[in-house]
Amino acid sequence: xxVVIIRIVLFVTPWLTVFxxxxxxxxxxxxxxxxxxxLVLVNSILAVPFKLWxxxxxxxxxxxxxxxxxxxxxxxxxxxxxxxxxxxxxxxxLTNLLMDLxxxxxxxxxxxxxxxxxxxxxxxxxxxxxxICFAFIIYGYQLFITRSKSRD
Length: 152
Description:
Blueprint: H1 2-16, H2 23-47, E1 53-54, H3 59-85, H4 89-113, E2 118-119, H5 124-151
Helix pairs in contact: 1-3, 2-3, 2-5, 3-4, 4-5
């Protein structure tokens, strides 16, 4: 039951903050948030055959965990980070470094203790490295989108 509550909180809480994001900003960064979600979704799909992490309850439980994380804090967090940092790469990189360290170490540790998931062939450092890689990829993606729109 606790895991279900954690999932709901993970999904709902970030969406409660969307009311503070201007509509124009939300629309501007939704494509990069969707792209980010796809990257994390691919990572989650690869977690099954490579046993990167496990979730009690099987594939449905894993899918619900992944959904609440990907379309909750990851989606909304991407929009917030881009809202405050895009165009200032050093600030974007520093923000992502800190957020990814926070995700990889204390958050992963707490969620494992709460039995939300268990890392198997994936360690906190791998969570950090993949998150940092995704951050650089999506920044480039947003630059591409921004430059393409400015040419129109």
